[in-house]
Amino acid sequence: MFNRVEGAWIFDFPFEPYVRLLASIHGLSDQIQTPLPRETFELTFMNDLLAVCERLWTDTFAHPQEHALAQWASARRSDLLRDIGIAEAAVKQLRSADLPFILTHGDAPGNILYDGQQVVLVDWDTVLLAPRERDTWFHRYDANFLPLYRQFVPGYDFDPTAYRFYLYKRYLEDALGFFDKVLAPTSSDAEKSHNFSELINDCEGWLRPLMERERD
Fold it and tell me: 165-199 pLDDT, tens per residue?
């Protein structure tokens, strides 16, 4: 049982207490008594992603939003194939690496409750022992993150391969989720339109610029 948490689910949370909370959670790793699953660096969604991409690249779609999605995917075919290759290369590198594993949440910035005083991290259904980058990759280009986080983890810096893995995994996994929602026969016109817009906002508006910056 957990104590009831009162607060608003927000994304614009106070950053310093959030980083302090994240670092303190990472610092609990040695105290965990219950066996937890460990990161395997498997891209379990890859076969599904390739199958949906092949459908988008070859089929004809009558529904306007499905047609728009197919056009979008076809225009980005080379990018998507390159992204898949980068993610798979990172997997091979990480499986032979010796990175320390710690307690991680997996989507901390999207699961914050704030009551005006306290920052609380909720929804621990994807807890995993994994490299720090599973939680820290979100903040790779946030100038305020490392100075704060290093107060608790002196000398920490992003492992470039782990960062690349979690960034590209998020992009590809999110893209597949939006593909499925747009193509679902049970989705309404409004739902298809909404999910296509979310694909653009999430994958192209947020993640793609990070991927391009990482390759520069």
Answer: 999 999 999 999 999 999 999 999 999 999 999 99
What single-letter DSSP state applies at residue 120? E
Which secondary-structure segment (H or E) carries 119? strand 119-121
Q: What is the distance between the alpha carbons of residues 121 and 2, in angstroms, rounded to a whole number?
A: 12
Closest-CA residue to 137 (of 111, 114, 113, 109): 109
- Per the CB < 8 A criterion, the answer to whether 17 and 116 are in contact is no
| Model-wide pTM > 0.85 | yes
Residue 16, H or E segment: helix 15-26
How far apart (Å, rounded) are the C-alpha atoms in residues 26 and 78?
A: 38
Whole-number Cα distances in Å, 116 to 12, 68, 80: 12, 42, 41
**Model pLDDT for residues 127-144, shown as the tens digit of each residue:** 999 999 999 999 999 999
What is the four-CA torsion angle of 72, 73, 76, 79, rounded to 10 degrees? 150
User: CA–CA separation, 50 vs 45, rounded Å?
Assistant: 9
Angstrom CA distances, 153 to 8, 27, 70, 73, stand at 29, 9, 45, 41
pLDDT of residue 1: 36
Considering only 2-16, 32-46, 62-76, which range has the smallest mean pLDDT? 2-16
Higher pLDDT residue, 66 or 8?
A: 66
